Each structure stands twice: as C-alpha cells, then as structure tokens.
Amino acid sequence: MENIFNSMLSSLKEKGLYRGDFKYLNSEQASKVKINNKEVILLGSNNYLGLCNDIRLKEAVIDTVNKYGFGSGGSRLTTGSYDLHRKLEEKIAHFKGVEASLVFSTGYMANVGIISSLCDRKWVIFSDRSNHASIIDGCLLSGAKLVRYKHCDMDDLERKIRENKGKYNLIVTDGVFSMDGDVAPLPNIIKLAKKYEIVTMVDDAHGVGILGENGSGTAKYFKLSDQIDIQMGTLSKAIGSIGGYVAGKKYFIDYFRNIARSFIFSTALPPAAIAASIKAIEIIEKDKFRRKHLLKMADWFKNKLIEAGFQVTRTITPIIPVIVGDSKNTVKLSESLLEEGIYVPAIRPPTVPSGTSRLRISLMATHTYDDLRYVIDVIKFHGKRLGIIEG
Ligand code: PMP
C-alpha cells in the first residue's frame, strides 16, 4: 500500500507538482509578513484591502469574544444562531442590493451547498471552464449534467446551451476569476440567460470589496444586482474574516436554509468572526479610497511588468497573474524571490491548466510603491536569469 502512495508522490515530484511543507507565518497577514522570523513582502494574499489585521476588526473581535466567548456551540438550525448572524445576513443583503442572504462556514461550503441543493439529475449546468473548484465540486455533487464552456466565450456558451439545454438549467460563473483576475462578461451572460430562460449564479469571492461603486462586487459594477438570481461570495478575502454567503430572493434563501446540507450539518461560525465581517462591510461601504488606491497601484504595477516583458493578463483587479508556463521554472522563480524577501506562491496544475503555471501576484491596499519598485527590480533580474523574459 505504502508503495502506491510513494510512487504517486514521486510522480508529482517529477512533474514539479509536489507541494512540500507549508510556509508557516509567524506574524499577522499584512503587506509584509514573517516566515521563520524573516520579514518578506507578501504578494499572494487575498487580504486585498488589508482588513485581516485592521485595528477596527481586531477591536470588534475582542469585544465580541468578551461578550459571547469564542465557539458558537451548535449548528445554525440548533443552538448556534446568534443575533450577530442575523445582523450580518441583513447587512449582506443590503450591501448586495437583494432581499436576503444566508451565511455558511466557508465559501467552499456555500458553493457546494447552494449548487447541490438547487440542482439534481434533471438539471443542466453551464459552467465557465475557469470556475473555482468549489463550483465544480458542487456541480458534481448535484448529479446534474455538467457542460463546461470556454473561458468567457459567449459564442461557445450559446452553442452549448442550444445543444444541451434541458428542462431546468443554470449558468454559473466566477465574477472575478481567481487565477486570472479577469471579470466575467455578466451583461452578455444575463442576455443569454434571459433569452433561454436560465437561472444565473455568480461566485463573487474576488469581486467583493474591490469592484462596484459601493464595493459590493461584480454585479454592482455592471449594474446588474437585481438581474442575477443567486449571488455567492466569501467573507475570507477582501472582507478579511472567514465564511461564505449566498444572497438573492427570499424564497431562494429560505430554500437553501432548509435544504443545503453544508449549511445544516456544520457548526455555525463563531460570533467573533461574524462581528469582524460586519465591521469590514461597514468599512468597505464607507471607504472608497482604499479600493481606488489599490486598483490604481495594481494598474501601475501591471504596466511595469508588461514593459519588462512578462506575460501578464491585463485585468482591472488586483490579481495579476505572471504566466511562466513550465511548473518547475515557476517554482524556481518563486523560490528565488523568497530568497530576496518576496513571498509569492507558484500556482500549478491542477489549480490552473497545464502549461500555464504562474505566479499569482495579488496586491493589497497596504502595499507601498517602494515595496513594489523593489519587487519589479528583483523579478526582472530573476526573470532574465531563468529565461522567462529576454535578457
Ligand atoms: N470561490 C472562489 C472563486 C474562490 O477563489 C474561493 C477561495 N479560494 C472560494 C470560492 C472558496 O471560498 P473560501 O475560501 O471562503 O472557502
């Protein structure tokens, strides 16, 4: 038995796909972190707005722990629902401009719970090829027919709808794609959904806090908040806390509350985590400057990488993929940067398609232009040394 697993691990190593030990941080998740007590610039975090370690969130958490303790002690349908859960769910609904919302323990559990309770064998699900793994897992768990369309390709989507449409249908897409940083063409998706009478769902894990005039995400950015049937998101990225949610019409939310197994059969989030999310949404609603500054800095940084000759997807978000291609070379670049005090993880298959291994750089509002100028100099040097850009 041991041999089988060892040979599978060796095969991963040969392909440059083996994940070694974790990088353990011994500091808070800020624009600079400590790994083994060495300070490094962090360039791969989803803490886009720097709220994970914001003093206002810390204070909210401490006050809440003092009042409520830590663990929630039960699932939401038994003893684990607190007044704070209700407050957060009302807040999310208002923030997203919809009737109601429901909070899950993680975004992963939200996707799996929503899709598997909405769809069954009678459904056909049209899913963007680059959708997050939790969407795919939800689709597989549902037993529905899964039809994957080419990334953001509306002609392919329409062709596949015509060929596969069933009695009940769902189109599901990331709002902002986690590994590419690009934005789904929601207006066109909605047009097709209306034309063919299809339910729509958007996973806005990476859009929330970043896009839209109040920071509420991709739907707001396209002024489509009332057109998307199901909006899902996470509280663990720009919001700086932990958890996932679904937002939409009351009847959908009531349905998920009753049927979604990942909601029903798991312990509720601790009140302190809920208090952090409430505080973060309040900050996001009021503080436009943070996200504007972040997007401006990201644009500047992307242009510098492109000028240097790197293959970088042009996006309007703080997710900046630097495509290297080969997995081993990507790891070498990531390791070289770490030696120089820059931590940006290498992303390899199966997270991204084979041949597209990359550094997934993501900026935080709390980075400085000085940090980023240093990063550009170092990445250029090692990019040339490893033959990723011309010398
Ligand atoms: N959807 C997307 C697009 C994601 O990137 C992620 C997290 N990587 C999730 C869902 C899952 O969210 P969580 O981390 O809160 O489980």
Model description:
It is a single chain. With 391 residues, the chain is an alpha/beta fold. It has 2 domains: 22-53 and 288-385, Aspartate Aminotransferase, domain 1 (Alpha-Beta Complex); 56-286, Type I PLP-dependent aspartate aminotransferase-like (Major domain) (Aspartate Aminotransferase, domain 2, 3-Layer(aba) Sandwich). The chain has helices spanning 2-14, 55-68, 83-96, 107-118, 133-142, 154-164, 186-196, 218-221, 250-259, 261-264, 271-286, 288-307, 327-339, 369-385; strands at residues 32-35, 38-42, 100-104, 123-128, 145-149, 168-174, 199-203, 230-234, 244-248, 311-312, 319-325, 342-343, 346-347, 357-362. The strands form 3 sheets. A 7-stranded mixed sheet has the order 3-9-8-7-6-4-5, with helices on both faces. Strands 10-11-14-13 form a 4-stranded antiparallel sheet, with helices on one face. The protein has a 3-stranded mixed sheet with strand order 1-2-12. Helix 2 (55-68) packs antiparallel against helix 11, helix 4 (107-118) packs parallel to helix 5 and helix 12 (288-307) packs parallel to helix 14. The protein is globular.
Write the layout of secondary structure elements.
Layout: H1 2-14, E1 32-35, E2 38-42, H2 55-68, H3 83-96, E3 100-104, H4 107-118, E4 123-128, H5 133-142, E5 145-149, H6 154-164, E6 168-174, H7 186-196, E7 199-203, H8 218-221, E8 230-234, E9 244-248, H9 250-259, H10 261-264, H11 271-286, H12 288-307, E10 311-312, E11 319-325, H13 327-339, E12 342-343, E13 346-347, E14 357-362, H14 369-385
Parallel strand pairs: 2-12, 4-5, 4-6, 6-7, 7-8
Antiparallel strand pairs: 1-2, 3-9, 8-9, 10-11, 11-14, 13-14
Helix pairs in contact: 2-11, 3-11, 4-5, 12-14
Residues 106-108, 111, 132, 134, 174, 178, 203, 205-206, 234, 236, 244 line the site of 4'-deoxy-4'-aminopyridoxal-5'-phosphate.
